[in-house]
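Researcher: Here's a chain I'd like modeled. Treat it as a single chain, no partners, no ligands.
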Amino acid sequence: MLFDIPKIDYHILCDENHINKQLELEKLKIAATKYGFLIIKNHPIKSKNIMNVFSIYKQFFNQSIKDKNKVNMSNTSSNRGWGGLRAEKVNKNFNFDYKEIFDCGPNINFKHKFEELTYYSKNIWPEQIPLFEKTIMSFYKSCEIISLSILKQIEISLNYSSNYFADKFNIPMSLLRCNYYPQRSQELSNKDFGIATHTDYGCLTLLFTNGTPGLEIELASKKWGEIIAKKNEIIVNGSIAPGPDYKLYLTKEFAEQEEEFLSIKDKSRYVAEVKTFKNFVITVPEDIDINDYNTIVIWCESFSEFITAAKYK
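Model: Modeled as a single isolated chain. Structure tokens:
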């Protein structure tokens, strides 16, 4: 089954004066609330630049194991560098993924409270491939600009407050990954996939493809289907998904920023971990009377970051 998900014109979406901007915003709202996926066309990254990125990644993956091991991420204890076949398992019900990967992240040149975490490890690069770092980081920055622009337009389409997402990305832990899928061997079983079924843990995923089919997605209806985009289009997976160590608290006072919640955190009541932001249900412990509180707060314990809050009475 081939899904016909919303396709949005990025240029029109970001043009405040365009006559069709509202139409694109409506399509974006449908994509964000009904599908969790959309396709972006007419974006500012040129097709030749995308193909150049794929080409230089292919040059890397075509190297010998000895050369790729020089930047093996197993030596860094972080998502930086190369991961070989079977290095990752995204679903416990299947075998380790039959793919290779190369990861890099942001270059943050200022002091911050999370800098010792592995999410912010330094990038490592293959020295034997000229312009690899320059090409990939230029592409990373272009993707970052597009991602923040899309999030801004999601704010508008859903009538969220201005800069609802902005302060969540002051210290980005964004990851740029290239997945390389070797030709499938006849020896592989039905437990072996290039990448097994999974949910991306980030807020927004931009997926670029070389036109090769095979990507399938699951919608909120629980139906699976294929999704195909042209080489110059971007598939966007936009689930406002929890990051590491998200917790749900109940409070007696409404808080809408970090300082406000910290001032009442010792008086709040921890309820449960948050594993997903899509139609989740949490069982409240019997010793908690929700009538004693009026606000739900989502808080990232690992990063001591305020995520969101809602007043329920």
